């Protein structure tokens, strides 16, 4: 019986993404787009 390595390796990204906000941020006041991705840095 084979088993997985613990902890599992991070192989699904070339570089681990930086997260700057919550998972779902819609209709943010002052934004032109209706959705702001997690990886977009906050301004200010």
Strand count, sense and barrel status of the largest sheet are: none
Write down the Rg.
Answer: 17 Å
Specify the helix fraction band: under 10%
- Low-pLDDT stretches are none
Query: How many DSSP-defined strands?
Result: 0
Q: Approximately how much beta-strand content do the residues carry?
A: under 5%
CA-to-CA gap between the ends? 53 Å
Shape summary: elongated
Number of helices: 0
Helix/strand structural class:
little secondary structure
Mean pLDDT: 80
Q: Could you explain how this protein is built, in words?
A:
With 44 residues, the protein is largely without helices or strands. It has a domain at 18-44. It contains no helices and no strands. It is elongated, with a radius of gyration of 17 Å. The model has no long low-confidence stretch (mean pLDDT 80).
Annotate the secondary structure layout.
Blueprint: no helix or strand
Record keyword descriptors for this entry.
single chain, 44 residues, little secondary structure
Summarize the structure.
The protein has 44 residues and is largely without helices or strands.
């Amino acid at each position: 019986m084979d088993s997985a390595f613990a902890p599992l390796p991070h192989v699904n990204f070339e570089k681990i993404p930086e997260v700057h906000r919550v998972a779902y941020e819609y209709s943010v006041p002052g934004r032109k787009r209706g959705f702001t991705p997690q990886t977009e840095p906050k301004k200010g």
